[in-house]
Amino acid sequence: MTKARTDRVRAPQLRGRGWLNTGGRELTLADLRGKIVILDFWTFCCINCLHVLDELRPLEDKYGDVLVVVGVHSPKFEHERDPVALAAAVERYGVAHPVLDDPDLDMWQQYAAKAWPTLSVVDPEGYVVASMAGEGHAEGLTRLIEELIATHDAKGTLHRGDGPYVPPAEPATTLRFPGKAVELPGGDLLVSDSARHRLVRFAPDGETVVGEIGSGSRGRADGTPATASFAEPQGLCLLPPQVAEVAGFDVVVADTVNHLLRGVRLDTGEVVTVAGTGRQWRSTVDDLPHDAVSADLSSPWDVAWYDGRVVVAMAGIHQLWWYDPIKRTTGVYAGTTVEALRDGPLPDVWLAQPSGLSVSADGARLWLADSETSALRYVEDGALHTAVGQGLFDFGHVDGPAGEALMQHPLGVCALPDGSVLVADTYNGAVRRFDPVAGVMSTVADGLAEPSDVVVTGGGDVLVVESAAHRLTRLAPGTLSAAGASTVDGPRRRAERPPTRLRGGEVVLDVIFTPAPGQKLDDSFGPSTRLEVSASPPELLVEGAGVGTDLSRRLVIDPAVPGGVLQVVAQAATCDADAEHAACHLTRQDWGVPVTIAADAAARLPLILRGLDT
């Protein structure tokens, strides 16, 4: 059992710019008195936040008469501050609870959040009883909710009944938040209709529907076009004909929220699972091949045929993976799971939510849209390089030389026959073009509604998956020529989270980890905890960088550096206590902590990996 708190903290009042999913009603904590409340501090660009939405769904279903989840949207990117974009995201991701718009991060600060996502639990009497960062908390939350139900049922302070959620009406459109597209032999287009959990096949005009694959309901069933189901599918990859013949399917689908790869036969529309267990990856990194259908994946977002196999943009853990449809094996291709920007030889590089892939015409270069660093990157000759992009917190809409150009959360990329590349610069509502020979970025189209992919057909047409407009958009002829591009010198922005003030010199980093109720640390397969620390700029950290097994570490901060970002990755292995067949769990969190250095500031940096004791 967890220990009772002696320092009861009254939950701060909920205030923001507005509410969604309440039928226009503004909620207060008084309105929620008698309910168990989970405040989910999220931002819609963040893959970890999307994971938490899926973790909370079963809890909302099971405890709907006593539990109210309130999403507190605390944005990172400028585009996410747009209330129209937020409303679209709430619909896109099927958020079935009230959402408070917190554009200036006021609630974020009131509840002392330091990472996306953060969960705060408020009891029926209005007190904060737990706070936890990151994902993977469903089991611990279940046990906490059960304890709160028992306690407040006995006290008479638990009120059962319907919550304040009011579902919005869904407009009638052919597509709903489409994700990616691929041209098929013969010129038809296959599109992932993400919010409707299906694939739609269009004639070459991009408007006439000639087929649908998937029931249209969220699920993970294999089978015929009418009975198969997906969960927010994204990327599509057409296999080479000789590979498809042996594999038994023609198209690989990144079935994102199911954490699966699916195979589709184009002649019958039959769907089969080809990789993934359906469980989200919570393991350790290795360089071994694994049986594909026995491997756990994490939010595969795009797929591309490169170097004789399918490369998978594994957005959920900031890696690229490979999948061999002949050998039916899979494994890590690039990335350590640290969310940041670091180039070098594969696989020991850092990525940040890779979301779009495309291969150059000669097959030598794999381009990728690294969305959280707002970067265009590429793999060539066994190494990862950055063409455009400066890091996790720098973004904007700026054209010109590669070293100065900026994007804002790009999701799609399309390599062109001349060696240049088009980028779906999603949060800027633009399609950009990068010329690797001149090293220059330009804008070829703007005013688009969250473009998420670009396809150039065999006939030379440029089609944009305009996701928030729920359509395919054909760009004007001449888009592919340099003369058709313009140069934009827009604002340069930086994600400004409230920084943590630290003093120069010695600082103690403490990652506070409390196992969920009913669990204990598990060292049966080696040390139960792991901590990795780095800094940007690197000179901020004089001592303390690197990997270790202790969750407390002495850091030495250079007082001459005014500030930067401490990158902290912590994980802890636990197992069920007092169980004959104990289940194992891995809790992991990646923080990018902005810091400013001041002589009178704190000498300790506490971070919470899991739940606090209640």
Q: Can you describe what's shown?
A:
The chain has 614 residues and is mainly beta. The chain is built from five helices and 45 strands. It has a seven-stranded mixed β-sheet with strand order 1-7-6-3-4-5-2. The protein is globular and about 70 Å long. This is NHL domain-containing thioredoxin family protein. Residues 5-150 form the Thioredoxin domain. Keywords: Repeat. InterPro entries: 6-blade_b-propeller_TolB-like (IPR011042), NHL2_NHL_rpt_dom (IPR045302), NHL_repeat (IPR001258), Thioredoxin-like_fold (IPR012336), Thioredoxin-like_sf (IPR036249), Thioredoxin_domain (IPR013766). It comes from Polymorphospora lycopeni.
Label this structure with key terms.
mainly beta, globular, 614 residues, disordered N terminus, 5 helices
Q: What's the tally of helices?
A: 5
The whole-angstrom Rg is: 24 Å
Structural class: mainly beta
- Taking pLDDT < 50 over at least 5 consecutive residues as the criterion, the unreliable ranges are 1-6
DSSP E strands, number: 45
Terminal CA distance:
10 Å
Mean pLDDT comes to 90
Q: How would the global form be characterised?
A: globular
Percent helix among the residues?
under 10%
Biggest sheet strand order reads 1-7-6-3-4-5-2
Strand content: 35-45%
What does the largest sheet look like? 7 strands, mixed
